[in-house]
Design brief:
mainly alpha; 14 helices
């Protein structure tokens, strides 16, 4: 093995094809998208050099501002829900259900593998208000409350989107964090129990500090995924009513592929990329700071 690793020709032969495929599939589109930010037009009508007009438009476009703040609110609330509920599920698997948790883990994880369109149709029926009330409105009416047009207003549609995406993905984060909790040495927990530590003290002083690495990893994974949300919003509300539930990804898609403005669509994509990088760097810096304390 050492002789192979010391041979530069062997390294080039082994890594060359993979690097070539990665470059063609990933890096070339990224560079091409960045180049397009300085142009306007599309492949059919041709491209014209636009200098920094796309960036000037980005800072003055009210639709971008609305989509940006929707994306930020959605990413924060959904990520918090995913990680907290996932952590709660992981603790349930680890300390309550223990070895009998495999069936529950499978059932809770099941929505992760379902198609997004199927889940969106399910939630449309659950929160339906016309022509017939869905299950949620039926429950509200049965307890003496009035039904709500959940998908007919931006605020309530936003709530439905968050509920759907947290429910759909919390099983994944439960399994992910559970795998991190398994790395906590059992003898440390048993020693604390023998010393009379109750669950809250055990959780506060041992479990939580030792599970911070997997929590940070889950937060990075979750936020980067929620910032790039597209399919669930597109299938559930289509960005409506109006543009009230339109994230940056959907606005980028419409700009580039429906309005055929590839340059401005690429500029919005660049904004998304910068957002993901800044969020990841911020979380990594927070993680390092906590590890040095």
């Amino acid at each position: 093995m050492n002789s192979v690793l010391a041979d530069k020709r062997a390294i080039a032969i082994l890594l060359g094809p993979a690097l070539l495929v990665y470059t063609l599939i990933t890096m070339v589109p990224v560079v091409w998208s960045f180049v397009l930010t300085f142009f306007k037009g599309n492949p059919l009508q041709g491209f014209q050099f636009a200098d920094i007009q796309n960036f000037q438009r980005l800072f003055t476009d009210s639709y971008v501002h609305d989509a940006f703040w929707f994306t930020v609110k959605y990413a924060l609330l959904t990520s918090i829900g995913q990680v907290i509920l996932g952590y709660g599920l992981a603790l349930l698997y680890m300390f309550v259900l223990k070895r009998s948790s495999s069936i529950v883990r499978t059932l809770v994880f099941f929505p992760v593998v379902l198609p997004t369109v199927a889940i969106s149709l399910l939630y449309q029926k659950l929160f339906q208000s016309a022509p017939n009330d869905g299950l949620v409105n039926e429950l509200l009416v049965n307890v003496g409350l009035s039904g709500v047009d959940w998908l007919g207003a931006g605020d309530t549609a936003f709530i439905v989107i968050i509920i759907m995406d947290v429910w759909r993905s919390m099983g994944f984060y439960g399994v992910l964090i559970f795998s991190g909790l398994l790395d906590i040495p059992e003898d440390i927990i048993e020693s604390a129990r023998m010393d009379g530590a109750r669950f809250w003290s055990l959780f506060r002083h041992i479990i939580l500090p030792m599970s911070l690495p997997i929590l940070f990893a889950s937060a990075i994974f979750s936020i980067n995924g929620t910032v790039k949300v597209f399919d669930s919003v597109f299938a559930l509300t289509g960005g409506g009513p109006g543009n009230s539930t339109t994230p940056l990804t959907l606005y980028m898609y419409r700009t580039a592929f429906q309005y055929s403005d590839y340059g401005y669509g690429s500029t919005i994509a660049l904004l998304l990329t910068i957002m993901c990088l800044l969020i990841t760097l911020l979380l990594f810096r927070s993680s390092r700071r906590d590890n040095t304390l």
